[in-house]
Amino acid sequence: MSLEKFINQAVSSWMNNEGPQADIVLSSRVRLARNLEDYHFPSLLKADQAEEMIARISEGVQEKYLLELLKMEDLSSLQKRVLVEKHLISPYLADTSAYGAVLLSESEDISIMVNEEDHIRIQCLSPGLQLKETLKKANDLDDAIEAKVKYAFDEQRGYLTSCPTNVGTGLRASVMIHLPGLILTQQLNRIVPAISQLGFVVRGIYGEGSEALGNIFQISNQLTLGKSEADIVEDLISIVHQIIAHEQSAREALANTSSIRLEDKVFRSYGVLTNSRIIETKEAAQCLSDVRLGIDIGYIDNVSRSILNELMILTQPGFLQQYAGGPLRPEERDIRRAALIRERLQLEENC
Amino acid sequence: MICQSCKERPASLHFTKAINGEKTELHLCEKCAQEKGEQYMFSEHPDFSIGNLLGGLFNLNTPFSSQPAQYPQQKVLKCDSCQTTFQQFVNRGKFGCAHCYEAFQDQLTPILKRLQNGNTVHTGKIPARIGGTLYLKREIAELRGRLQQAIADEEFELAADIRDQIRSLEKKVLSEGGES
Ligand SMILES: [Zn+2]
Ligand SMILES: [Zn+2]
Questions:
Q1: Most buried in the list A279, A340, B43, B105, measured by CB within 10 Å?
Q2: A122 near A31, Cβ under 8 Å?
Q3: Which domain holds residue A70?
Q4: Which of B40, B42, B52, B179 is the best mutation test for A, with the most CBs of A within 10 A?
Q5: Is the Cβ pair A168, B119 closer than 8 Å?
């Protein structure tokens, strides 16, 4: 294992397996926030304490797990950016935190951030809809770390966190979900308020503000206090199942009522991706989403499903520059992006 | 001052927004603030820190508050362990250490209620080191509830049973000691 591996491959190997509901749910994520009792929270931590703490945390967990420790101070800003684009570290850990570090598993399904907003942020990822399994994995890691440290915990308030929005379970459970059907039929805006009323949030993952590039959304719990971890995950699963049902019926309706239009849209986008010489992030994301929908519906059968996931990450600015071996101007990026997508799709056709 | 978002209602809440170190001011009415608040408060690293938001809601963010009243200087509420004051917590939206939760306990309950949809008490996982006794205590609390119900229903035999169970669990808690 080495830094290069984490940086050079766009696709984490956990993404290679297809999980349940893979046609709509791209991945499941569980995050646990933890702090140690005997140290101030990261924003007030001194260098020597931070050093000592990183050692204690990694010692405990490395007895049971094979994890690589990467310290932020040892990484270039481009390397950090690539890790952010792969969702292995947060922008905050990369840019703002002092003494930040991350422990990564080889398949990148485990990422433990140290000295982010909290001392410890355990993050586990799985393909498809597998929240319970992912929670179990995070809990096991939590227990392994706890064997060597004393967590800040209060009987009333639960696990104590830097920010009161995380206190209690410290749990943020989420799914990454592809919803082109609900966007095309303009139903998502109606569904989002209902989800927020249940204490869950929907937001775009790629793109800025309210714009959701590639029709990819994240649904996660807002509340961390007053509900058990199992209940939070259970509730999220049932919400996701309902959204899946809506998305499926939207796709069916589209395929039934305007099949030729949908097919046209899919193949136009496929044409753009396989032929363009300059392409911006936004257009690439939209076309990738269309093609992925075409694969799910069965219009396209010679391209693998993981293409959306993979190319969404691969065509981010950090990755493009990593491949190019240096900084690129925006137009150079758009040219590289187009070339990379063409190359990747050609590879598929030859398989 | 009029709300910058809807440009209809008067702005009663005032926020500072910092992007790349550059501060901008935002003036919102209660309704828009609530909408925006939900948007920002729960994103992992929001442009609007929850501190700014709390500050606005509690009118503690003094720098450009339109609140004319001058409050007398009160005794400064402060965490003895990390020296973070309550005002600093409100401004930053972050505690300095675990002991802040104790130091600001009284002020915290309404804040948690607001952020956590009325919830203030943890019911989830417990660290292994205090696990045993705390799980017993939760069980005792639940049994007490059932005991009340049994008495109310005049089911005295059942009540006696439950009372025995509670006693034996309480003995267990004492013998296991625990830290709490
Ligand atoms: Zn307004
Ligand atoms: Zn403190």
A1: A279
A2: yes
A3: 1-16+30-168
A4: B42
A5: yes
Residue identified by tokens 């929850």 is: B50
Amino acid A55 reads A
Alpha helices in B42-179 (DSSP H): 50-58, 86-92, 100-103, 105-115, 128-152, 156-176
Q: Distance (Å) from the C-alpha of residue B65 to the closest C-alpha of chain A?
A: 24
Q: Supply the pTM of this predicted model.
A: 0.79
Element (H, E) at B92: helix B86-92
Evaluate whether residue B180 is within a structural domain: no
**Greater pLDDT, B7 or B143:** B143
Distance CA A321, CA A259 (A): 39
Phi, psi of A108 (to 5 degrees): 65, 20
Q: Tell me, what's the pLDDT at B74?
A: 55
Percent of chain B exceeding pLDDT 90 equals 23
What is the whole-number distance in angstroms between the Cα of residue B94 and the centre of ligand 2? 10
The answer to the question of residue A201 being in a domain is no
Q: Give the separation between CA A99 and CA A97, rounded to whole angstroms.
A: 6
Asked if pLDDT for residue B50 goes beyond 60, the answer is no
Backbone angles phi, psi at B173, to 5 degrees: -60, -45
Q: Do the domain assignments include residue B149?
A: yes
ipTM over 0.90: no
Report how many domains make up chain B: 3
Identify the band that residue B70 occupies on the pLDDT scale cut at 50, 70 and 90.
very low
